[in-house]
Automatic annotation (TrEMBL):
Cellular-component GO terms for this entry: plasma membrane
Domain of life of the organism encoding this protein: Bacteria
Domain Phosphatidylglycerol lysyltransferase C-terminal intervals: 247-555
Membrane spanning residue stretches: 28-47, 67-88, 95-112, 118-135, 147-168, 209-229
Protein name, UniProt field: DUF2156 domain-containing protein
Organism: Streptomyces violaceusniger (strain Tu 4113)
Length: 610
């Protein structure tokens, strides 16, 4: 008689066998189908013709036009299936509809052109699987992508006709006879679809013209399909009503998170909890639903807002992720959603009451500040509401001109605006130096550097932007941070959040005596990457002011999602851009769908230290 453990173990084997026989779980089918779609698409494009098969002998009896059509259809269907594969993996309904419609065409092309019974059967089997598991493909599409696709089809079609007409006329010595303009246009139209038109050529020029026209047709189909089935990238927009509600939540609970005010970026969307007492702000980038910081509002209502966020992600098949949440926020996210968390870095926070320039640790900062002051620089630290409109406009223009990059950087820890009337509580620190007798003033007068702080509850502020004139003396940022910290008591500010330092603990531990080879290697890699992303320089800049470090985390679903989340975060922060040419960029989109839990009626990135 086996003991209970043996009996339990022996019972597991048949269960595993039964699970294997049942095949993948329904929720795993989109991934399986997407992979199969990729393989069949490749087969439609690159598999050779089976000239020695019986099907080949039968197909040779068909008219040549049918064979040409099958060849074009095979390549086009293969390209489209490759484009649809990612949408199928992400459960997109429109991708499912398109795949079900394309697979029979691909099966016929496999039979008539590739002469492959196996290819035909595989296409039909995949279509059957798609129909069997159709309920798994319910993710909502982009409501505007179909119009972009239609516009692209019309524009590309017109361009293809014009270019095709030039191609048809590019071999005048090889054209048979003297075809009319209508016959040439007819030849272009047939050629775009893979057929031979009425214009005849000598010396093999018909192959060159035919392949060129077919390539134009494939390009039109490929770009149209890309616009129709690409992942949704909504142009998020914070409505005035949403912004007003967020400001009310920040007025009541804004002291808890130093990143709370950055939820008011107007290129973010927002979902509220069913009670309306909490909200999560986000942006969708490359199929990643990217939130930043902690939820805004009452901690007790966070789970409701998080549930709405996750439901929105499931409805659109977006990858949920959170960048830069606090330890408390990470605990709530992981507990409520089953997501995982990884320490991303540390936020530098200075308590104003403890800040002083005296002591050996502050010697370098103290000497730099005194040297710059002796050079004739003066500082002013004021609330934005206390500045006049002309001075605010000069500061805005100077900050834009000193940016140094084509795009505004920042997402999770950047507000993206200066001097907005709604942000009157923001603090602006400026450095000034009058021009000498022999020197002319710059385009912004005596203004040489700007720091912008946003409110952190009633008694704190968070550094949002650092900009300086490149011709100014080094140390402008240190000068203004010290000036802001010294002026903080008069402004009623007790805490100041400085920059965020990625992987700060690894950099700090890796340079200590006794650090192991793995930690030293990790630090060496971070130092190497700092040539482009200022990881080490930003950490060392923050450390000058002897702050306390508060860890920040990234929350994610699966480890395999981290590369996608990292790329999406770099896009959101402005370090990477895959933008289309300006003429092809999308316009504004409709507002995001409200959370299903409640249909509402009304609807700081890495700063550069140098």
């Amino acid at each position: 008689m086996p003991d209970s453990q043996d009996a339990e173990t022996s019972g597991e084997v048949p269960n595993r066998i039964r699970r294997l026989l049942r095949g993948p779980r329904p929720e795993a089918m989109p991934t399986v189908v997407g992979t199969a779609c990729t393989l069949i698409g490749l087969m439609d494009i690159v598999f050779p013709r089976l000239r020695h098969s019986r099907v080949h002998a039968l197909a040779e009896l068909l008219p040549g036009a049918v064979s040409s059509l099958a060849a074009a259809a095979s390549i086009v269907v293969g390209l489209l299936l490759l484009m649809l594969a990612h949408g199928l993996k992400r459960r997109k309904r429109r991708a499912w509809v398109a795949a079900v419609g394309l697979l029979p065409v691909g099966a016929a092309a496999q039979l008539l052109y590739r002469h492959s019974v196996i290819g035909m059967v595989l296409s039909l089997v995949l279509m059957g699987v798609l129909i069997r598991y159709r309920a798994e493909f319910a993710a909502l599409p982009d409501p505007r992508s179909r119009w972009m696709a239609l516009a692209n089809f019309v524009v590309m079609g017109a361009v293809s006709l014009g270019v095709g007409l030039l191609i048809v006329r590019s071999h005048p010595d090889a054209i048979e006879g003297n075809p009319s303009l209508s016959e040439q246009l007819e030849h272009v139209l047939w050629g775009l679809f893979g057929f031979e038109g009425p214009v005849g050529y000598r010396h093999g020029a018909d192959y060159t013209v035919g392949y060129s026209l077919g390539a134009l047709g494939l390009l039109t189909v490929a770009t149209t399909a890309y616009l129709a089935f690409r992942p949704e990238h909504p142009a998020a927009r914070l409505t005035p009503g949403d912004e007003e509600r967020l400001r009310e939540l920040l007025a009541a609970h804004g002291r808890r998170d130093s990143l709370g005010h950055f939820a008011l970026r107007r290129d973010k969307a927002v979902v509220f909890s069913p009670s309306g007492k909490a909200a999560v702000c986000y942006r969708v980038v490359s199929g990643v639903m990217l939130a930043s910081g902690d939820p805004v509002g009452d901690v007790e209502a966070w789970p409701g807002a998080i549930a709405c966020f996750m439901e929105e992600a499931r409805a659109h098949s977006w990858t949920p992720a959170v960048m830069g949440c606090s330890e408390t926020g990470g605990e709530v996210w992981t507990r409520e959603t089953g997501l995982d968390a990884l320490e991303l870095g540390d936020e530098a926070i200075v308590d104003v009451a403890d800040f002083t320039l005296s002591g050996r640790a502050m010697r370098n900062v103290r000497q730099m500040v005194k040297r710059i002051e002796r050079a004739g620089y003066q500082t002013r630290v004021r609330r934005a509401a206390d500045l006049g409109p002309e001075e605010l406009e000069a500061i805005r223009r100077a900050a834009a001109d000193w940016r140094g990059t084509d795009t505004e950087r920042g997402f999770s820890m950047a507000l993206g605006r200066i001097g907005d009337p709604a942000d009157g509580d923001a603090v602006i620190a400026t450095a000034h130096k009058a021009a000498g007798e022999d020197a002319e003033e710059g385009p912004y007068g005596d203004l040489k550097a700007v720091l912008h702080f946003v409110p952190w509850g009633p008694d704190g502020m968070s550094l949002e932007l650092m900009r300086r004139d490149r011709s100014a003396d080094p140390g402008m940022n240190e000068l203004l941070i010290v000036a802001a910290l010294q002026a903080a008591p008069e402004l009623g500010v007790e805490r100041v959040s400085l920059n965020f330092a990625m992987f700060r603990s690894a950099l700090a531990r890796g340079e200590k005596l006794g650090a192991g080879p793995v930690l030293r290697g990790w630090r060496a890699l971070l130092v190497f990457l700092s040539r482009w992303f200022q990881i080490e320089s930003l950490y060392k800049f923050n450390a000058k002011f002897q702050p306390r470090w508060e860890p920040r985390f990234v929350v994610f679903r699966n480890t395999r999602d981290l590369p996608r989340i990292g790329l999406a975060a770099m896009q959101a922060e402005g370090f990477v851009s895959f933008a289309l040419p300006r003429l092809l960029r999308r316009g504004p989109r409709p507002e995001p769908r409200p959370c299903a839990h409640r249909r509402l009626a009304d609807g700081r990135g890495l700063q550069q230290a140098a």
